[in-house]
Amino acid sequence: MVEEDKLKSIFEAANLAPSAGNLQAYQVYTVKEEAKRKALTKAAYDQKFITQAPICLVFCADPERSAERYGKRGSELYCVQDATIAGAFAMLAAADLGLATVWIGDFDEDKVREVIGAQSARPVAMFAVGYAAEEPQPTPRKAIEEIFHGDFPQTD
User: Fold this and answer.
1) What are the backbone angles phi and psi of residue 153, rounded to the nearest 5°?
2) What is the model's pTM?
3) Range(s) of the domain holding residue 98
């Protein structure tokens, strides 16, 4: 299990994430109950690490909140960005606390919404949180030059 003080630190980090207009147009659902984690596993096409970890966090966009200020662009984009930025902050905090996480984006939104009981929120990312059972090898990454364009920092 993840200690409550560590979980609170993760929540505090997510809460500090920047958001469009500082609206924080997202909701986060914490799922500890095994039956619900199993249901999320099924909704995520049997990605078993959701059940294996003691906690799954579900980051949901709040389109209505964002639309109040930004209209269609807010409801379609800004709230999704808000939720994903908050999720990234939470993941970085978890890693800093010695926890392991995995980002889950492949799932049936309607089934996830049903499991967590969200009405109008749109699930955009989930991640399992816990202590790693093993140390995975780093995955290969693209060269910086393949991703970044324009002026590069000069090195000596």
Assistant:
1) -60, 140
2) 0.91
3) 4-135
Provide the token pair at 59: 């980051």
Q: Pick from 117, 98, 122, 121: which is nearest to 2 by CA? A: 98
Question: What kind and span of H or E run contains 70?
Answer: helix 63-73
pLDDT digits (tens, 9 = 90+) for 17-51: 999 999 999 999 999 999 999 999 999 999 999 99
Instruction: Identify whether 130 is part of a domain.
Output: yes
Number of domains, the chain? 1
> Domain holding 46: CATH number?
3.40.109.10
How many whole angstroms separate alpha carbon 34 and alpha carbon 50? 10
- What are the counts of helices (DSSP H) followed by strands (DSSP E) for the chain? 7, 4
Residue 48 φ then ψ, to 5°: -65, -25
Asked if 118 and 110 touch (Cβ cutoff 8 Å), the reply is no
Average pLDDT over residues 123-146: 90
Neighbours of 136 (CB within 10 A): 9
The letter for the amino acid at 94 is: A
CB atoms within 10 A of CB 144: 9
Q: How far apart are CA 20 and CA 56, in angstroms?
A: 25
